[in-house]
Amino acid sequence: MKKFILSFLIYIIGVTPVFSQTYQELSDRAIACTEQDSLAQAENYICQALKLEPANPHNALLFSNLGTIQRRQRDYEQALESYTFALNIAPRAIPILLNRAALNLEMGRNDHARIDYSLVLDLEKDNKEALLMRAYIYASQRDLKFARVDYERLLKLDPQNYNARLGLATLEQKDGNLQKALEILNKMLVENPEDAALYVARAGVEQDMQHVDLAMIDLEEALKLNSSQTEAYLMRGQIYLSQKKKSLAKQDFEKAMFLGVPQAELRGVLQQCR
Prior knowledge:
Helix content is 77%, strand content 0%. By secondary structure, the protein is mainly alpha-helical. The protein has a domain at 22-91: Tetratricopeptide repeat domain (Serine Threonine Protein Phosphatase 5, Tetratricopeptide repeat). Helix 11 (178-191) packs antiparallel against helix 12.
């Protein structure tokens, strides 16, 4: 009869009942399950611990861990709620703010992410992750002045920061400062001569400068280093199309689709390849 009742409970509530375990034991089990990628079980243990001691101040960490587990399971709304519960308990916890900011960005909630990164920088003005990601958000929203401030501040802290240098080069390109963008990318390629993404970035600047032959050389080099560079196929396809080489353009656009670019996004250029 006991075995039947236990099985019935599992069937009804969908989780394994946990008997006579302390808050700490449940928390430790959750960590172990997370390390073993048993995410559903880890979530179960955390929920049991939260129910056992709802007023425990360490629940901020548990809610944060729960949010990360839910995020890994792509349960984004629940993850956002868990991170927010964690911050209600510990509003100045920078790692939790960074986690929620990253999740907001992943969900396309860029304004919310920017607010969280700004909260981090209010608490820790030289936080590199927050500076980098807020600069990225500003740049994507065409707030180039504010993006520049964050990139330059980050580069003062870390002059060789790869992402900040690439971000600043992209910013200079968007701002029409093509020679400055080219100078940054040239220096980076001296240091990273086998970085396909940098060749693609430089090709984009060269294309804007009307140096199409140089752009094509860089795109060829990028694809030689990494044949999965989707942006390289798209850019080369556009150049071929502008040169009326429709067959070659079509091949590149089709390769980009093969690599994951939605056909709907390329419908217009594919029609021009006819």
